[in-house]
Amino acid sequence: MEYQFIRVEVRDDIATVVMDRKHELNALSFGMLSEINHIFSSFLKDGNNVRLIVFTGGDECFSAGIDLKEAPYFTTEEATRYFNLAIDTYSMLLDYDKILITAVSGIAFGGGFNLALMGDIIIASESAIFGHPEIKYGFNPLLTPLVARIGMARSKELTLKGEPIGAQEAYHIGLVNRVVPPERFRDEIASWSKQLVSRPPEVVRALKRSFDVVSRLDAKAALEYELEMTAMLFNIRGDIRENMKSVIQRKGLAGKIVCS
């Protein structure tokens, strides 16, 4: 499929998806959201070798959110179709079993902020600005991924005020993982990607599933679930024992480990 509103590059098991409606601040039109949904769905198909996806809007702007040139003119049917597509897209990304890095430069407002929150890792340029202004328009923002990242109190403050915050404040409240100067933005993305793409896909799937499940369980049930997952991976992955042995041999520690 040829894309009109996004650019896609795949190299060394890493896919980079770039929103490309620069003149509209990467506003989430139905067309662009459809293409985002399609490309992320395609990475999940059998035989696809992509292990990690970088999702970005480029160096200047992540996304201004819903397209204000399009949305006010939606018919009831068009609005329903748009938000059903949004539900399908966010639901897929919340359960995504590959590593997803969202790289944010410039504004990430409303729906753009929602997409940024889908990342397992969020890397922000110092120019990044995050905001949920939906309350000013009379409707609700998406709370689930926001609360999961920064908690209820911070989420209420951010959404009830509807005012944007900068990259440093976003880092301070735990919203993003790294903040870097604009000139280091691409290098930081490449560094994280190179490190994380080597993680075994089946272990990534298990770990991401565990994050989703344990948050819904009490402490004892969560502990049992995690240890059962550890036992399963230990028994089905033949390389785990060899990896453990190689660490000892590589560091020259065989026969030397003593606990005093």
Automatic annotation (TrEMBL):
Transmembrane segments: none annotated. GO terms for biological process: fatty acid beta-oxidation. InterPro entries: ClpP/crotonase-like_dom_sf (IPR029045), Enoyl-CoA_hydra/iso (IPR001753). GO terms for molecular function: enoyl-CoA hydratase activity. Its EC number is 4.2.1.17. Keywords: Lyase. Pfam families: ECH_1. This is Putative enoyl-CoA hydratase echA8. It comes from anaerobic digester metagenome.
